[in-house]
C-alpha cells in the first residue's frame, strides 16, 4: 500500500530510540524517550499559506528533526509512521 500526503504534509519513518544510555545503562521500553529524528518517506505537493504558495523544503530520503508532540501516528504493514505538516519539521540533518 502506498501513502501520498496531501498539500504540505510529510510522511516520516521515525528512528528507534536509544536502548542504552551513554553510561551503559540499558533502558526498559517504558523509560525510552520518543526519538525526534526520522527519515522522509513521502512528501505532498505543497499548498497555500496566507494566500501564498508554499514550496516543499524537504524531499524523500532526507533525515529530519521534528517537533516532539506533532503529527499523527499511523501503522501500516507493521511499521509505525508519522504524518505531519512541513512546518512541524525543525531541521534537515546532513
Task: Annotate the secondary structure layout.
Blueprint: E1 9-14, E2 37-43, E3 47-49, E4 52-54, E5 63-66, E6 72-76, E7 79-85, E8 89-93
Antiparallel strand pairs: 1-2, 1-7, 2-5, 3-4, 5-8, 6-7
Q: Could you describe the largest sheet, including whether it forms a barrel? A: 6 strands, antiparallel
Number of helices: 0
DSSP summary, beta strand count: 8
Low-confidence residue ranges: none
Cross-sheet strand order for the largest sheet? 6-7-1-2-5-8
**Could you tell me how far the N terminus lies from the C terminus, measured between alpha carbons in angstroms?**
29 Å
Oligomeric description of these chains: single chain
- The structure class reads mainly beta
Task: Write structural notes for this entry.
- There is one protein chain.
- By secondary structure, the chain is an all-beta fold.
- It contains no helices and eight strands.
- The protein has strands spanning about 10-15, 35-45, 45-50, 50-55, 65, 70-75, 80-85, 90-94.
- Strands 6-7-1-2-5-8 form a six-stranded antiparallel sheet, with no helix packed on it.
- The radius of gyration is 15 Å and the shape is elongated.
Q: Notable features of this structure?
A:
single chain; 94 residues; mainly beta; two-stranded antiparallel sheet; 8 strands; elongated
Amino acid at each position: 500500500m502506498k501513502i501520498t500526503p496531501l498539500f504540505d504534509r510529510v510522511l516520516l519513518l521515525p528512528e528507534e530510540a536509544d536502548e542504552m544510555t551513554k553510561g551503559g545503562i540499558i533502558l526498559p521500553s517504558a523509560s525510552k524517550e520518543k526519538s525526534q529524528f526520522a527519515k522522509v518517506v513521502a512528501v505532498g505537493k505543497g499548498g497555500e499559506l496566507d494566500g501564498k504558495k508554499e514550496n516543499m523544503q524537504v524531499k524523500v530520503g532526507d533525515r529530519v528533526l521534528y517537533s516532539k508532540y506533532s503529527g499523527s501516528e499511523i501503522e501500516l504493514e507493521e511499521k509505525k509512521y508519522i504524518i505531519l505538516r512541513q512546518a512541524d519539521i525543525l531541521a534537515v540533518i546532513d
